[in-house]
Amino acid sequence: MRDLEDILNYYKNELKWNPPFAEALSKYSKNGLKGYLVMRESIENGHLPKKTRELIFTILDSLDDEVSGAKAHAVAAIEAGLTMEELVEAFMIVTVVKGINVLCKVGVEVIEEAEKKAQEIKK
After folding, report:
1. Which long-range contacts (CB under 8 A, 24 or more apart) does 113-116 make?
2. Which of 45, 73, 90, 102 could join 58 via S-S bond, C-beta 3.0 to 4.6 A?
3. pLDDT value of position 37
4. For the chain, where are the alpha helices, taking DSSP H only?
């Protein structure tokens, strides 16, 4: 099992994410932080392709109004080969099921961030 500094560095460097809960858990629930990482690693080493996994995280974060997480996951999905058409189609499915608010509140920002990454990759 990794030590706490390794875990915090993993989030910052590998996942490019500084989860708001990581510092608190590292102080008061070391096993909780380690357990959460074990769950994340089991997903990362699971059966879904990375682009699909990241798309699911993108949509779930969007549903919770977690803009920064949704953007980060959308960029990771694009880097893993997700197309802009696939991303927008996923947001259309969310719109059909949950309404236009998700697309308006978070989706447009996420799509714009993913577009930047897609254009960067094309260059």
Report:
1. 113/71, 113/74, 113/75, 114/71, 114/74, 114/75, 114/77, 114/78, 114/82, 114/84, 114/87, 115/84
2. 73
3. 86
4. 4-9, 20-28, 30-44, 50-63, 67-79, 84-98, 100-102, 108-122
Tell me how far apart the alpha carbons of residues 54 and 44 are, in angstroms, rounded to a whole number: 10
**For residue 59, pLDDT beyond 90:** yes
Q: At what angle do helices 50-63 and 67-79 cross, to 10 degrees?
A: 160
Q: How far is CA 35 from CA 41, 50, 74, 96, 105, in A?
A: 10, 21, 25, 35, 32
Task: Please report the pLDDT score of residue 41 as a whole number.
Answer: 86
Residue 73: closest CA among 57, 88, 84, 90: 57
Cα of first residue to Cα of last residue in the chain, in angstroms, is: 40
pLDDT, tens digit, 9 for 90 and up, residues 75-115: 999 999 999 999 999 999 999 999 999 999 999 999 999 99
* pLDDT value of residue 77: 97
Decide: 80 and 54 in contact? Cβ < 8 Å. Answer: yes
